[in-house]
Amino acid sequence: MFGFLACFYLGKRRASLYGWSAEEVSDLVFYGAIGAVLGGRIGFSFFYGFDVLADDPLFLFRVWEGGMSFHGGLIGTLLAIFWFGRKTNRIFLEVADFIAPLVPIGLGFGRLGNFANTELPGRFTDSFFGIFYPCKADSIRSINPVCFGEWEEFARHPSPIYQSVGEGLVLFAIVFYVAQYARKRDFILSGFVSGGFLVFYGLIRCFTEVFREPDPGIGFLLFDFLTMGQFLSIPMVIVGMLLMIRAIGKDLKG
Asked: Does the N terminus or the C terminus of the chain have fewer Cβ atoms within 10 A?
């Protein structure tokens, strides 16, 4: 809820720069919220729980059991952007570039929610940053069936906090700078800003996944290193780079 409210507030602040109305911002945030929630749930069911979904298709609708995927939410949001663009006669990249700087704050709040729910625990660590997770947490029981007592016997990285800072504050600062740079170079609304979001989110996600315990039932996908989150982020980086190169190329030709 805080994430969507922050998107609406920041969107209203940016609306005048791009000739948008407050009503258009409100509609875009609403469509984006629907796309993010539905896409996040569907993406989680297919990317992280496909075996369960294949055995029990109703798993898709049991939202009270939890389970959201950023990459699924991204796909849902892109579909919502496309639909909004059709309704308002705006091109897809124009809408994507407008909303890209708004997204990181919502991601940061989402990761704080993961931490509050003791979800997405990190890997073992003996560093100063390590915290002890409760054995009763569903996320711990799924990866450590021998956890007895109140707390695990070893500390883990608080990976949701790392991802909240990286995908929230750091990514927001980077994408905000990219948007400012695009306005100075006068190639705003060309895919450059949304491309920057894809590139830097993918890179930050790949880095923070190093501290996060691989998803139970999936584990590492390659060489005991590549996780599902990293695997899904690599195409984002590639597509984002292509969008940025395309925008720069069009600017040079102009």
From this structure: C
In the chain, where are the structural domains located? 2-253
**Is the per-residue pLDDT at 74 higher than 70?**
yes
How far is 185 from 180, CA to CA, in rounded Å?
9
Burial 112-127 (b: 16+ CB within 10 A, else e): bbbbeeebbbbeebee
User: Which one, of 66, 26, 25, 28, lies nearest residue 45 by Cα?
Assistant: 66
DSSP 191: S
Q: At what angle do helices 70-88 and 92-99 cross, to 10 degrees?
A: 130
Instruction: Compute the Cα dihedral for 183, 110, 202, 174 and give only its sign.
Output: positive
Residue type, 188: I
- Backbone φ, ψ for residue 122 (5° rounding): -85, -175
- Write the DSSP string, 5-28: HHHHHHHHHHHHHHT--HHHHHHH
Q: How far is CA 48 from CA 91, 147, 214, in A?
A: 32, 23, 11
20 and 42 in contact (C-beta within 8 Å)? Answer: no
Cα torsion 166, 116, 4, 53: sign: positive
Q: What are phi and psi of 147, to 5 degrees?
A: -80, 115
How confident is residue 237, by pLDDT bands cut at 50, 70 and 90? Answer: very high
